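Lab notebook, design round three. We kept the backbone fixed and only want residue identities now. Task for the bench partner: fill in a sequence for the structure below.
Input structure tokens:
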């Protein structure tokens, strides 16, 4: 893996995929029983995009998150705009943390790139406290 490839993949994970999940959590904190379709679609889209480029050792964790989105999609057929459950959120957070940890290990030779991506990640990382407003 090159530094450029690592930086691009790490940024995509944090800014796009983790970012979509963070946005969904933030919205659900306002409306706990409802997750807007657009936010759910963003989660699914970012999952597919990241899954298509990810070649690391956390494929099982990525598949676990995919199953959460699949199960939520099934619930949404019965209850429109169904929200993530507490169990969904807990499982997804664990999987995001595992993917993050593996990405950090995978890019350990590129510490400057990793640091740069982290410093500019509007949603932080799965290992940091959730931010109340990523727009700040």
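Proposed sequence:
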């Amino acid at each position: 893996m090159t530094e450029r490839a690592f930086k691009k993949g790490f940024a995509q994970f944090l800014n796009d995929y983790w970012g979509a999940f963070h946005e969904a959590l933030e919205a659900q904190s306002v409306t706990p029983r409802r997750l807007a379709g657009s936010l759910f679609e963003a989660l699914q889209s970012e999952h597919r995009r990241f899954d298509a480029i990810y070649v690391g050792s956390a494929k099982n964790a990525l598949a676990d998150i995919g199953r959460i989105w699949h199960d939520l999609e099934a619930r949404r057929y019965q209850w429109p705009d169904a929200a993530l459950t507490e169990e969904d959120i807990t499982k997804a957070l664990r999987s995001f943390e595992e993917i993050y940890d593996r990405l950090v290990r995978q890019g350990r030779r590129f510490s400057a790139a990793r640091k740069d991506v982290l410093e500019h990640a509007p949603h932080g990382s799965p290992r940091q406290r959730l931010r109340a407003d990523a727009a700040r």
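Keep this in mind before ordering anything: The longest helix spans residues 3-30.
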